[in-house]
Amino acid sequence: MNVQIIAIPKIEERRGNISVIENDTIPFEIKRVYYLYDVPSGAERGGHAHKNLQQFLVALSGSFDVTLNDGVEEQVITLNKPYEGLLINSGIWRELQNFSSGSVCLVVASEVYIEDDYIRDFDEFISYSIDK
């Protein structure tokens, strides 16, 4: 599957740690950054794929599961470390669930928001992944 866990450089210090995401950390130019927070218990986010956009997800606080599907196989990755992120390349269906209380999901994206880049219907995604 075209996803990868990437370590984010971590500088440890007695006053607290710092991690930095720059263009040499992830394999794309950063064009958009947003974050999910206050996700209610039992709620799910995502539920789509992208035709071109790449995303890098980080659990800044707490934890959540990312269910990934490439049209052939499915896997679940739990994110729970602020110094690791999940690179999701284009053409991968993603669903985020099981958010712990107080969790924050940072999303770093390769493109600005373009609605036409989204595939929001799973059956349409399966057809799209077969045609690729």
UniProtKB/TrEMBL annotation:
Gene3D superfamilies reported in the protein's UniProt record: Jelly Rolls
Name of the protein described by the UniProt record: FdtA/QdtA family cupin domain-containing protein
Pfam families associated with the record: FdtA
Transmembrane segments: none
Organism name: Flavobacterium shii
SUPFAM superfamilies named among the record's database cross-references: RmlC-like cupins (SSF51182)
Residue ranges constituting the Sugar 3,4-ketoisomerase QdtA cupin domain according to the UniProt record: 1-128
